[in-house]
Amino acid sequence: MSLPTQTPEGAVPDTPAPGKGLVIALSVLACSVIAHAVVTDWRPSPGGNPWLVPVIASGLILGCALLLALRLRGHAAGSDNLTAARMHRGRDIAGATLCTGLWGLGFFHAVQEMGLVTATFLFTAVGMLALSPDPRRALRVVLPLTLAVAISFWLLFTRLAPIVLSDPLFW
Amino acid sequence: MLELLISALDVALSPTVLIAVLLGVILGVTVGAIPGISGDMAMALMLPFVFTMDIAPAIGMLMGLYKGSLFGGSISAIMFGVPGTPGAAATILDGFPLKQAGFPNRALHTGLYSSIIGDFTSVLVLIFIATPLAVLALQFGPREFFALYAVSIVIIAALDKGRVALGFSAAAVGILLSMVGRDPFSGAARYAFGSTDLAGGLGLVPVLIGLFAVSEIMLQAGRIFRERFAHLEAGVRQRTAGEGYDPDADRLSLREYATLWRAVVTGAATGTFVGALPGAGATLAGFLSYGLAKRVSRNSDRFGKGSLEGVAAPEAGNSATAGATLIPLFAFGVPGSGSAALIGAAFIIQGITPGPMMIESNLTIVYAIFILLLYGSIFTLITSKLLLPHYARLSMLPPRYILPVVLALAILGTYAIGNSTFDVWVLLAAGIVGVAMRGVGMPIAPVALGFILGPGLERALRQSLILGFNEPGYFFSGPIALSIYGIAATLLLVFVLVGRE
Amino acid sequence: MREFPAHRLRCLRALLICIPLCLMAGSARADAFPTERPIRLLTPYGAGGGIDIAARILSAVAEPHLGTRVDVVNMPGAGGLNAAMFTLDAKPDGYTLMISDYGPLITLPLREDTDYGPEDWTPVFQITEIAPTFVVHPDFPEPTLPGVMAAAAREPGRLHATHGAFMSSSHLPLLRLEQISELRMNHVPTLGGGETLQFLLASIVSLAVTNSSSIASAVEGGSVAPVAVATRQRIPELPETPTLLELGYDVVMPVWYTIFAPADVPEPRRRELAARIASAFDTERARSLAARASITLSGTDYDSLQQAYADTVATVTATISALQNP
């Protein structure tokens, strides 16, 4: 969390400048959509064809990629600084993203298999503890908090906006 | 006339109606703030109860829900960067940076006041100039919609100065994502690769919440996880609500709010107009208001970094659709949005078919609805005023407690929409895509907008091609379409000239 | 605190009585149907549509007659495929049903590679029948179906005709009419009822095909003129409007909102459900709820319903195969 002494402006860290990778990714995406449109045997349809808008969008992407590439060439020197620090940071972010994604998948499956309340309690508690600097001390806050969360989830998703759950082990 | 007004007041101010509207507003603000559960969904869940209620309380409750959720959606947009309802997606762009800078209360209040002003404006428009506006809105055929969507995309994609190519490619990526699924004109499954899930297309809510919120959660969780060791080593305790956050520095004075008038007026006008168009909706209204307000702002370089104007405009815009969306419904029986369709369903359940006949045969009810729409705004103001300081405090809790709960809510809320496991996968995948996009410096807003407008753009384009027998001239043959292109060209020219100096 | 043990004893006694009851329930399972647990009624679309409202009416009146709750579950997505697959994948015990029009059950499997076909479903109870209605703008030179057909014949393929989604229940009658009359029109697909009506009101198109209910108010107000309905008999809401059959075109493609069970649900259970749902709808409350929502309850019995379903399958199959092999 940022310091409140900061001004509202300039709170967002500056975003990285688009690099070579982005240009290549965009071009590959656009070309593969166009190639797919050419080789696929689409059902004929009125008003253009199913591939009309995707091909237009891809054309737009290709044009933009070209512009970006030209600009990169313009000030090429500064953009190729894939330093070790940045690589390291990238790996960290990828790891965190993966873990969070797996947590989400695990939580959703646990809701189906173990039951809404149990899964919510367990997963939010694990999540909070994993992010706490001193898990043992945080336990005093985390336990009542997650219990309250689990109960409100139960109210929300079985009473207010019921979701379809398979027959779980617990509730 | 006077008698009519008195009988309408009698209906609208009866205690049951007052309570129903208030209940709707409270429920709407609360539910709207929950990611994934949009106002439409809450209204849908209320429909069964409408069976057992009288018409005035039933409609009052639904309208309260709708209005409340339009603002509630921005509460979670500002607090957690999660669009509580799709309409609040544009509010994230500046609302969330403001919160991160420690000013949740200012952002929330700016959003609230703008929301109320936008809403009030559009209700007044509904009451006084609905008919001419409706006639204009009705003339919006495929050709006109194509012009509107194309111009909207240009305005939003070119949001960032010097990053126009990036913005356009992001919008195009969004359009491509929206093409996944069945082609509405032939039934062909596009980019499904044999999967029936993909053939069903990607859902709006999972994609929006994934791109904006899940990616943010993923990044924050990673950072906090790493910092936790740093703090252990340095022996520094993390800041908590009591220590780091200063509620006094986070007040919004009315004088300060008044300086945002340009943004509010832009938003209210844009939202009212867009809301009156059948099929455009609150999300487009939010983004378009944001884009236009940035153009007219004196401080446009602050947009995206935590500008109060950047909260005021989309909030006024998306809330201004509340009254306006009823215009085509009341005037012609054409429901212009998902919400209007649900309100129309409530009317039908109550035995009143929305449309021109309604105004002739049930005028008292129509007037009563106008009145309750007006005080519905006031209820939203009061309820939110009471709740906001607490919400602001809540959002300043340490993120280590908030993040797991928000992600769990986003997952279950997304699942609750259609009970589809695939939606949950899309949500998480969109989160990963969002992280990647932030990593390579691609703006997210144009992707979201492209995704929202893609299907409508395609429908408008291909309907126009059918109606014009594939003649390109058809696109430029109507006066409304031509004026949209004209206005857009003028705007662009002005911006270019102003940008030069 | 003294009372606590007594209370406990009562609990125990209740439990002891319950156990044999439960055992009995187990042995007499067939008789207990459908009262053992709530019935899940899937809808293939979102809330607020006609099918959803019909389902909610059943849910509101079901309990005393079915002996259990009916939970409506909206499962929109993939054109109804999600709801259909969920229903078919559930245990075939009659506790998971689906309420649908014919699109997800007949059109979808005929056009796409789905894991099921129309024969995997059996209709249990028809709630209502809705007429696809052909409407024109009142300013149309000759606002009758022959007038429309003459205009279409003058300029083949140039008369704009709008309908709901591609291959939806409002598009198929139009296609069938073309196949029979050998006339071509220019078809403009839309999102559905609202957009269809807008295009007609704004004179963007000349002819629109839509549900009778979505144009009721506009017809009453005189802003659109109905010219034909695609049902076997004229409908009570539009007594003046002829059927296509009367006009010499064999286009009978009514849309119905029908409750379906997977075909592997035992026949006695289906009949039991049909009888109980029928008695739930044969009440004052159901009738008044339906009347308020402008739903005309259809009183088709179980056996003629099977025939009606077979007829729709045949007509839709004929229309679609004529398209694919012209």
UniProtKB/TrEMBL annotation, chain A:
It comes from the Bacteria. This is Tripartite tricarboxylate transporter TctB family protein. Residues 23-160 form the DUF1468 domain. The keyword Membrane applies. The chain crosses the membrane at residues 21-39, 51-72, 93-110, 116-133, 145-165. InterPro entries: DUF1468 (IPR009936). The keyword Transmembrane applies. Keywords: Membrane, Transmembrane, Transmembrane helix.
From TrEMBL, chain B:
It comes from the Bacteria. Residues 18-447 form the DUF112 domain. This is Putative tricarboxylic transport membrane protein. InterPro entries: DUF112_TM. The chain crosses the membrane at residues 12-35, 41-63, 70-92, 112-138, 145-178, 198-219, 329-353, 365-388, 400-418, 424-453, 474-498. Keywords: Membrane, Transmembrane, Transmembrane helix.
UniProtKB/TrEMBL annotation, chain C:
Keywords: Receptor, Signal. InterPro entries: BUG (IPR005064), Bug_dom1 (IPR042100). Residues 1-30 form the signal peptide. Belongs to the UPF0065 (bug) family. It holds the Pfam family TctC. This is Tripartite-type tricarboxylate transporter receptor subunit TctC. CDD domains: PBP2_Bug_TTT (cd07012).
